[in-house]
Amino acid sequence: MEELASLADLAEACYNDPHCMWAGQGLSAGGRIWVQGGAVAVSCPALSGQDRLVIRGPHDAAIELIRGVIPMVAGSYILVGDADLVTMVTAAVPGLAPRKQFGWMDTAIMPSNARSHRVRWLCAEEWSEVADLLGEAFPDSYARPAVPGVHRWAGIRDGSGPLVATAADAWSTPTVGFLAGVAVSESARGEGRGRDVCHFVLEDLLAVYGRASLMVHTWNTAAIRTYSGLGMSWRLLGSAWIGEPR
Known about the structure:
- The protein has 246 residues and is of the alpha+beta class.
- The chain has helices at 7-13, 18-23, 59-69, 83-92, 127-137, 193-209, 221-229, and strands at 2-4, 33-36, 39-47, 50-56, 77-82, 96-107, 120-121, 150-157, 163-170, 177-184, 212-217, 233-242.
- Helix content is 29%, strand content 34%.
- Helix 3 crosses helix 4.
């Protein structure tokens, strides 16, 4: 097992895999990167609401790598990677317990079609309204105003009235932008506001970082359909508890 010390080394080891590169931001915040036999493991604390250990690579090599890495990460971490890989690793390595699956979606292509609603970046004085909207429409969101790593919020207003849709640029890295905190007021749904606020943020993320990504619940078919319509591709991720489920 070898430990890597730079994002350039990570990019070479993981073939610039966007999920691994996204987790690589932890290198400047106490995270670490290990490789063995073509497998890569990347630890990152406090990344989108979780301490994450991202795994990638051939099944057998990944199993051996995780066996060596687990003693070096805290029990607060979860293991995350492609669903089939995580299933195999969890079954083979003591101390892991199955957790949920979810979707990773990303794109390097600008979304097509025009927006029908006016979207803009919100100023900090408007972030209290973002918090209120999230409380109403997405109370489980990891992205919230003033949370470390959450950089900017975009929004749509109902004319000169209240904020009715929002989305954030959060936990983005130099090569992978990340979209989070998408919320639309219940009274404003069904008219494309969610699509338009995501379209706006994706355009900006792609212009700045070259690739944009997000995570989504597998059951949220409406959101998955919206993101697919914006040109994002689907990847099923699995996760496992390290230590006791909590």
